[in-house]
Each structure stands twice: as C-alpha cells, then as structure tokens.
Description:
Blueprint: E1 2-5, H1 9-22, H2 28-39, E2 44-50, E3 53-65, E4 69-79, H3 88-102, E5 107-110, H4 117-125
Helix pairs in contact: 1-2
Amino acid sequence: MQVTEARTDAEILECWPVMAQLRPAVQRPDFVGLVRRQFAEGYRLACLRAEGRVTALAGFRILHSLYWGRFCYVDDLVTDNAARSRGHGAALMDWLQNLARTERCTRLELDSGVQRWEAHRFYLRERMAITCFHFSLTLDGAEPGPRAAR
Length: 150
C-alpha cells in the first residue's frame, strides 16, 4: 500500500470511483473541476493505492482557528467498498496523522454524518473522540450544489 497526493487531472480522476461511493451526487464529468476549485482553497487529495488501483482516499485541508490553532481538517475519507476491513483506512489515517504532525498541526478533525455508524466505529477504533455537535442551516436563495451523505 502506498499513499500519494493526487495532483494531475489523471490522478484526480483516478480517485473518482472511490469518492463517488461517499459523494454520489458528484458526477464524473464534474469531478476534476470541482477538486481543482477546492485545491485553490487549500484542499488536498491523498489516495492510497493497493493492487494497482486507488482503494482509499482522503480530501483534507491544513487550517487555523482560534479554538484549535493549526489543525488538519478531513473533508472526505472513504475506503472502496470492495477493499474494506483490509487495513486501508487505518493506513490512510496513519498517513494523515503523520502528515499533520509534519505540517505542525496539533489536531486532526473531521465531521461525520449521524447515519454513518460503521464510519463512527472506525473513527473510535482509531482513537478519535466525539467532541462536538455540528449544526447546519440551508440558506434561502442559496444555489444548490452537489451534496451527498457525509
């Protein structure tokens, strides 16, 4: 297993089949453009390859806040359904933690939809704690965008 960051259009597109399992509203023709737009805002895309293909990925950002200081926020974290329970997610979490330490972060943070019980079990096994509630408000007149279960 090897983790690298996807940077070229081809590498980004190679991640789409796995990302689509987490974000089914994001269509293949739009994927590279959406990721590139996020790159401009600090988003990075790490992919774990095993057996010659992407089997897990993480979209993340290095951010600062008054509350947490410098931290790594994980927007997207998913393992291919066909590759689950083989250590790919744990290997990617180890990579993220090491990268966050290298980037002088003090925390690794992520949000997870309340319906994702399997993911929550994984995060707890990875020594993550449930530390807050996330509240959301859809604004009247806001343009709809791709949205999928988190």
